[in-house]
Amino acid sequence: MPNNVFLVGPMGAGKSTIGRLLAAELKVPFYDSDRVIEQRTGADIPWIFDVEGESGFRDRESAVLAELAEEPGAVIATGGGIILRPENAEVMHRGGRVCYLTASVEHLVERTAKDKKRPLLQVDNPRQKIIDLLEQRDPLYRAVADWVVVTDRRPPKVVARDIAERIGQS
């Protein structure tokens, strides 16, 4: 059975940064599902959203997740909306453990403020959009998570070490 660690959570929680550090700490490969999608399509996420719509992107996301979940042991950072499809939660549980990285709204707004590669935040009020997304998604993240880790104002290396310790204890 694969023994992967899947990182889920909202945009700006630190999934990619912490994921890279966690993979180094555990000495396993790291994959960022959004980057895998971009590499395979030769297009960035906003372009995929524009051309294929959110559902087209979610189809690609689910396919990449299913493939990465077959890895024998890796850290996999997922997109913020991965939990919108119940089948993705099943794929992650079959493929390993799930860690929900969360942060305050203020922290998420600060971390995503200048990033133009987040299609869902290209709106008049990104802060409100983050609040709305958290309201919708937080229960889904919590339902799929084996662990919940708050990343607010914590150095990514400390968070990665914390998760590695939790993995070692389970």
Global Rg: 15 Å
What is the succession of H and E elements?
A: EHEHHEHEHHEH
Proportion in helices:
55-70%
Question: Which structural category do the helix and sheet elements fall into?
Answer: alpha/beta
Question: What overall form do the CA principal axes indicate?
Answer: globular
- Annotation field: number of helices: 7
Say how many strands there are: 5
Largest sheet: 5 strands, parallel
Could you name the ranges where pLDDT drops below 50 across 5 or more consecutive residues?
Answer: none
> Which band does the percent of strand residues land in?
5-15%
Strand order of the largest sheet: 2-3-1-4-5
- The chain-level mean pLDDT equals 90
**How many angstroms separate the termini?**
16 Å
Describe this structure in words.
The protein has 170 residues and is of the alpha/beta class. Helices cover 56% and strands 13% of the residues. It has helices spanning 15-26, 33-41, 45-68, 86-95, 105-112, 126-144, 156-169; strands at residues 4-8, 30-32, 75-77, 96-102, 147-150. Helix 1 (15-26) crosses helix 7. The longest helix is centred in the N-terminal third of the chain and has 24 residues, at 45-68. It is globular and about 45 Å long. The two termini are 16 Å apart.
Brief descriptors of the model:
5-stranded parallel beta sheet, alpha/beta, 7 helices, 13% strand, 170 residues, 5 strands, single chain
